[in-house]
């Protein structure tokens, strides 16, 4: 089978079990157009069904992770059209991907770019990363999670200030507020993200998927319901080979060889 070719993204395999997806519209600072998202979704669908893929890294360029939804694509649209076609609803497909995605953010992550990073499971930032939800300056508001995921991540008062003023915030602020897990050395964000994804890809896939499902349940459910989901996920792992393999390897002081079953 030949690998699909894309116009707006680049695909590579920088470490065992890791797919690196690079947003590649350099002239538009990786503005997120509908075709770009169609390609990103297709690449994730392939990664979802490819058993050799354990985790994905999503990145942009040094200058821009993504400077937002493509304003030029949106500017002349009318209400009836965006409403009837559920414009940009296909963005949320990223959140249906069940393997971990690590976002490696350098430069601008604005508007839909910030929202796309927040759809990922882990965000690592270069010191040059600039985050923001500037939609208010365009006469609109965030439409792909900026009012919701940002509020969950950094709290109401900060999210309100960001969303209502449209002012950007730094990688350092993003780390201090818990939006990103850490700021890494300049120039190393993709390598660091590949390292994290590579570590994840070495674990048993069923446990990894269960862990992601469990943490995500914390965003949707009450504490009791979330704990219930967690216990069910935990119990079900006792039906896997990998639980037997992992615990036996520990007891025998060996390295586990996961079967992903
Ligand atoms: N859309 C389209 N083109 C863009 C975008 C964008 N978001 N951002 C940059 N570009 C283009 C510029 O138009 C320019 O093109 P050209 O060379 O043809 O003029 C090229 O990229 C380079 O940009 P600049 O010359 O502006 O570069 P600077 O370094 O001077 O500035 C900035 C960089 C500050 C990032 C600036 O480009 C900027 O402010 N961009 C717009 C940021 C923004 O407002 N983003 C939010 C967009 S709205 C949004 O994301 C809503 C999401 C809703 C999702 C809904 C799902 C249901």
UniProtKB/TrEMBL annotation:
Q: Which GO terms describe its cellular component?
A: mitochondrion
Record keywords, A-Z: Fatty acid metabolism, Lipid metabolism, Lyase
CDD domains xrefs: crotonase-like (cd06558)
User: Which InterPro entries does this chain map to?
Assistant: ClpP/crotonase-like_dom_sf, Enoyl-CoA_hyd/isom_CS, Enoyl-CoA_hydra/iso, Enoyl-CoA_hydra_C
EC annotation? 4.2.1.17
Instruction: Tell me the GO BP annotations in alphabetical order.
Output: fatty acid beta-oxidation
Q: Does the keyword Lipoprotein apply?
A: no
This entry's Gene Ontology molecular function terms read:
enoyl-CoA hydratase activity
- Per the UniProt entry, the signal peptide is none
| PANTHER family (alphabetical) | ENOYL-COA HYDRATASE, MITOCHONDRIAL, ENOYL-COA HYDRATASE-RELATED
Q: Which family does it belong to?
A: Belongs to the enoyl-CoA hydratase/isomerase family.
Q: Please report the name of this protein according to its UniProt entry.
A: Probable enoyl-CoA hydratase, mitochondrial
What species was this sequence derived from? Leucosporidium creatinivorum
Q: What is the lineage of its organism?
A: Eukaryota, Fungi, Dikarya, Basidiomycota, Pucciniomycotina
């Amino acid at each position: 089978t030949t690998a699909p070719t894309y116009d707006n993204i680049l695909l590579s395999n920088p470490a065992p079990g890791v797919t690196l997806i690079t947003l590649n519209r350099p002239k538009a600072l990786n503005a997120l157009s509908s075709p770009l998202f169609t390609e990103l979704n297709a690449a994730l669908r392939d990664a979802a069904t490819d058993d050799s893929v354990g985790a994905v890294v999503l990145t942009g360029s040094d200058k821009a992770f993504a400077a937002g939804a493509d304003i030029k694509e949106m500017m002349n649209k009318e209400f009836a059209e965006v409403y009837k076609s559920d414009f940009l609803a296909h963005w949320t497909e990223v959140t249906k991907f069940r393997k971990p995605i690590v976002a490696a953010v350098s430069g601008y992550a604005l508007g839909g770019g910030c929202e796309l990073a927040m759809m990922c499971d882990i965000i690592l930032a270069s010191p040059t990363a600039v985050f923001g939800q500037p939609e208010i300056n365009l006469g609109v508001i965030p439409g792909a999670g900026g009012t919701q995921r940002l509020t969950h991540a950094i709290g109401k008062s900060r999210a309100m200030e960001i969303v209502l003023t449209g002012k950007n915030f730094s990688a350092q602020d993003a780390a201090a507020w818990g939006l990103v897990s850490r700021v890494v050395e300049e120039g190393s964000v993709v390598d660091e993200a590949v390292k994290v994804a590579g570590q994840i890809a070495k674990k048993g896939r069923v446990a990894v998927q269960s862990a992601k499902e469990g943490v995500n349940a914390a965003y949707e459910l009450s504490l009791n319901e979330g704990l219930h989901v967690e216990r069910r996920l935990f119990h079900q792992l006792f039906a896997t080979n990998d639980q037997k393999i992992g615990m036996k390897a520990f007891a025998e002081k060996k390295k586990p060889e996961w079967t992903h079953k």
